[in-house]
Amino acid sequence: MSTYENYSEASKHYDKTRVPVGGEILIGVLALSRKSRSEFRLLDAGCGTGAYAALVLPYVDHIDAMDINPGMLAVAREKLADATSGANIAFHEGSVASMPFEAACFDAVMFNHVLNHLESGQDGNFYGHRTALAEAHRVLRSGGLVVVNCIGHEQLRHGYWYLHLIPTALSACHDRFIPAEKLEAMLSELGFALEGRFVPLDGLFQGAAYFDAEGPLRPEWRKGDSNWALAPEQEISSAEAKIRELRTSGDLGPYLAEHDAKRRQVGQATFFVARKI
Q1: Nearest Cα residue to 273 out of 152, 144, 153, 151
Q2: CA 20 to 30 Å from 244, out of 14, 76, 77, 94?
Q3: For residue 9, what pLDDT band results from cuts at 50, 70 and 90?
Q4: How far apart, in whole angstroms, are the C-alpha atoms of residue 33 and residue 92?
Q5: Beta bridge partners of 194
Q6: Which distant-in-sequence residues (6+ apart) come within 8 Å of 57 by Cβ?
Q7: Is 251 among the domain residues?
Q8: Within a domain: residue 188?
Q9: Are 174 and 140 in contact (CB under 8 A)?
Q10: pLDDT digits over 211-241, tens only?
Q11: Confidence check: pLDDT of 25 > 80
Q12: For residues 193 and 142, what is the distance between their CA atoms, to the nearest angstrom?
């Protein structure tokens, strides 16, 4: 479903430089919501390699993990093999735009950095977002939760020290990520009531690897952030040349620190939580 990344290839390296940012927010939301449910069934829509599913599995009764890419799904199955034996989790190959589930069968649906992959970024209408969220509304029980974990425009500009090195990709990403106000309006139009917007200020997508100033020189490091897939080869080469120049001059560490300074105020991701009316 992704319009810009080959996840069959990326799945081989994804978990080397990627962690589930904001897990504590997700766990808290699900734990509070399940208090009113004797059994709690969660859909991980666009589960990728299963990082978020692994994190929240102890807090729900059952997870259905779905992804359109067989490579990502294979990694998730391997990662969660022990849980599968206890029937806590089931895996499905399918699209978030047409979910292979009956209506009103889930207590929560989570989209973790998925919806931007449904857009070309050219018309500004975000039909991919709307289609997926409408499907979430369909498969949720009354009062069920949808959690959208995505990147805001200010976070794109200031939350990643290296993105300014690939301006074409940064611009393309900006057009694919829905503005917060538009997302909240869309949720309301689709029959959801917004319950909150949360930003994990200390979360890092790449964990400790984020501070590897020479990371952009390595393809496997870049595979942990699909934004690099939107950069033309010439732009990647230019970014690599800049990193090497700074390394040679001894200025690479200060350069990273300078361009990372605002991340502590804006974070790298935003969680939107809404309830089906």
Answers
A1: 144
A2: 14
A3: low
A4: 24
A5: 274
A6: 63, 80, 83, 88, 89
A7: yes
A8: yes
A9: no
A10: 999 999 999 899 888 899 999 999 999 999 9
A11: yes
A12: 12
Sheet harboring 106-112: ordered strands across? 89-93, 62-67, 41-45, 106-112, 140-150, 270-276, 192-198
Say if residues 108 and 33 touch (Cβ distance below 8 Å): yes
- Within 13 A of 104's CA, how many CA atoms are on the CB side? 4
Q: How far apart are CA 186 and CA 188, in angstroms?
A: 5
| Angle (nearest 5°) at CA 175 between 19 and 44 | 40
First to last CA, the chain: 28
Which of 35, 53, 32 shows the shortest CA–CA distance to 44? 53
90: amino acid identity, one letter:
A
**Type of residue at 6:** N
Tokens representing 136 are 């979430």
Q: How far is CA 224 from CA 6, 14, 48, 83, in A?
A: 12, 5, 12, 25
- Max distance between CA atoms of the chain, in angstroms, equals 61
Q: Is 87 a member of any domain?
A: yes
Q: Which of 3-7, 106-110, 117-121, 246-250 has the lowest mean pLDDT?
A: 3-7
Q: How far apart are CA 49 and CA 3, in angstroms?
A: 18
SS3 197: strand
User: Which of the residue ranges 78-87, 97-106, 130-139, 143-152 would you say has the lowest mean pLDDT?
Assistant: 78-87
CATH of the domain at 135: 3.40.50.150
Q: CA nearest 189: which of 122, 126, 99, 98?
A: 126
Residue with tokens 């200010």: 154
For residue 2, is it within any domain?
no
